[in-house]
Amino acid sequence: MQNPIDTLNTVIRNRRSIFPRQFTGETIPRALLLQLLENANWAPTHRHTEPWRFHVIQGEARERLGQFLAEAYRANTPESEFSAAKYEKTLRQPMQASAVIAIGMQRDLQERVPEWEEIAAVACAVQNLWLSATALGLAGYWSTPKAMLGTPAFLATAPGERCLGLFYLGTWIPEAAPGKRSPIDEKVRWIGSNCTR
Ligand SMILES: Cc1cc2nc3c(=O)[nH]c(=O)nc-3n(C[C@H](O)[C@H](O)[C@H](O)COP(=O)(O)O)c2cc1C
Fold first, then answer.
1. Is residue 47 a part of any domain in this protein?
2. Cα separation of 104 and 23, whole Å?
């Protein structure tokens, strides 16, 4: 059996943003979706506020989402800059996904922790979901269109809930998807000596 750290290294380093144009459009069984969401639910959370919320948009609801996003693009784009191709792409994109998951951050109504900690906890939950999808051979990416941020009319957000974007989830034929990162050395400062005595 592979050592857990080897498995983890592989999954973390192979996770990529895979865009809907590469999706193959198969249905993802509810049991698998629940597995992803269950792992998201195990994210760290200060004071156990568990601020992540997920709106799973499937089936015909994806069509309505596409119309909402495309119309928002039309409404917010000056006529001189409007592209019919971009409108069509926006309209179709949700239909290419098996499910689109709107990511909610539920602000603790008593504000027991700063808002940034709630956002950080939601991001951890999304990473759990994304890594789980990768391990299952599924594809996804986090999209943050302005029309879906905050309290978009498309969603029935609860009081104090703020949408942080959409997670497009799909099936795909896995292929090499090289990532790009600058070296970690450039982002680390070592403080003190590596000695416990
Ligand atoms: C909070 C967040 C928001 C993002 N929003 C978008 C987005 O709106 N559009 C997009 O193309 N990618 C978006 N991405 C994906 C990044 O572009 C992507 O993670 C980055 O290019 C690194 O590629 P990788 O995920 O394959 O490692 C977002 C990622 C994060 C973490």
1. yes
2. 24
Cα 195 to ligand 1 centroid, rounded to whole Å: 38
Q: How does pLDDT run across 157-166, given as a tens digit for each residue?
A: 999 999 999 9
Closest by Cα among 12, 33, 45 to 127: 12
Q: pLDDT of 15-66, one tens digit each?
A: 999 999 999 999 999 999 999 999 999 999 999 999 999 999 999 999 999 9
Distance, in Å, from the CA atom of 143 to the CA atom of 166, rounded to the nearest integer, reads 5
Number of domains in the chain: 1
Structural domain contains residue 130: yes
Q: What is the CATH number of the domain that holds 145?
A: 3.40.109.10
Residue 123 lies in a domain: yes
Question: Whose CA is closest to atom 31 on ligand 1?
Answer: 142
Q: Does ligand 1 have an atom closer than 6 angstroms to the CB of 4? A: no
